[in-house]
Amino acid sequence: MEAVLSFIVQYKAIILFYLCIILFLIVKRKSIDRQAKIILLYRMKLGLGWMDKYAAKYRAWVVLLGYIGVGAGFVGLVLISYLLIKNLFAIFTTPTASAGVSLVLPGVNVPGLGILPFWYWLIAIFVIAVVHEFSHGIVARAHNIPVKHTGLAFFGPIIGAFVEPDEKKLRAGKDITQYSVYAAGAFSNVILALLALLLLAGVFTPIQERMIEPTGFTFVSYFGEDLPAEEAQLSPETLVTGINGKATKSFQEFSAELQCAQPGETVTLLTLEKQYKLTLAESPDAPGKPFLGISNIRNEFDVKEPYQAGWGKALYVVIDWTTGFLRWLFVLSLGIGLFNLLPLPIVDGGRMAQVFLHNLRGKEKGERQYRKVSLFFLLLLLLNLFVPLVVKLF
Predict the structure, then answer these.
(1) In angstroms, what CA-CA distances link 144 with 50, 55, 59, 80, 181?
(2) Where are the alpha helices (DSSP H) in 43-152?
(3) Where would I find the H helices in the chain?
């Protein structure tokens, strides 16, 4: 009982949010459309006038960006497909390889990134969905294709949005028009990710760095069993402040010093409490390079005195929150953009692949080929998601 209460308290915001979603679905149940038995759609007219207004005002620019998005979309489709195949091969051939695909949900520890805070996730998903779906709608309207509805989509715990253009008129249009409408969402997500990265690297991170004093780095867990850090009993969350007598204030500084050593060499790590002697292993990802066997590394710091109270503290909290949000917005927007380019039936890349194969092989043969391709990539995606989980059990 105590464990259940602890779980509820820890994830109260997430639980409350999904209870609100369930209540919304119950109240609106007569307006909910079910597709494929497991996908729920709630249609609206929200934003249609806004799409008409801006598509008409900036028609030439929207059409041009839509065409650019087609090229970027096909490049992204090939890239994400290659990365999935490459990652699956690495999972089977390299026992220590990390999963390249992960569900990014609030409260879940994402390998290499940490735990996604609920409010970051909620706000980021809202922004990403609006940008993605309204981009579809604006490009469609710029080509004089009617948009019938906007709406919300529910697929288990995954919540999304959609824009519903007139499919008959869209399919009757030119191939380049269809490609540009389908690619618009993913292309806009990639642009949003780059914008977030630009703000993060060019504005907020430099401001935050002036407010803090680096103190070293910690790590959350061991990378694997019987590796140097674990054998030396260097505990997770220990603050590492240097190596071989040289102080380092960040993992980047520490790593630069570590790269001067060789696998098999003994080094001394400095911490606040004591020194640890480790015999370095060889990196599983970079043969010939030294390896400590730690993961989920993060730099630690102290906030400078002017920002520990009053308006200075308030300013630091805003900068720190925005920096964290932009980091996750970049990750989520880029990830969702690339995912939508996969040749799967439920996403934009699948529609692009379908149009391409219909034109290449004819409608009937192309459709059969498309179904085979989409089934292959669905299986590939599921293997990337679940094989690493099964491997951990053994």
Answers:
(1) 15, 9, 10, 31, 11
(2) 48-57, 59-93, 118-142
(3) 2-10, 12-27, 48-57, 59-93, 118-142, 167-172, 175-199, 205-209, 228-231, 251-258, 310-339, 348-361, 363-393
β-strand partners of 19: none
Q: Which helix (H) or strand (E) holds 268?
A: strand 266-271
Q: Residue 97: pLDDT above 60?
A: no
Domain ranges within the chain, ordered by starting residue: 33-206+328-393, 214-303
Read off the pLDDT of residues 136-145 as tens digits, 9 standing for 90 and up: 999 999 999 9
Residue 116 identity: L
**What does the angle CA 97 – CA 99 – CA 104 come to, to the nearest 5 degrees?**
155
Other Cβ atoms within 10 Å of 290 Cβ, number = 21
Residues in the chain: 394
Token digits for 20?
A: 């609100």
Mean pLDDT, all residues of the chain? 86
> Which tokens belong to 151?
């709406």
Report the CATH architecture of 214-303: Roll (2.30)
Give dist(CA 150, CA 55) in Å, integer: 16
Could you tell me the pLDDT band of residue 30, with boundaries at 50, 70 and 90? Answer: confident
Report the predicted TM-score, pTM, of the whole model to 2 decimal places. Answer: 0.84
pLDDT score recorded for residue 201: 94
CA distances from 316 to 197, 228, 238, 327, 366 (A): 20, 37, 25, 16, 56
> What is the C-alpha to C-alpha distance for residues 383 and 92, in angstroms, rounded to an integer?
11
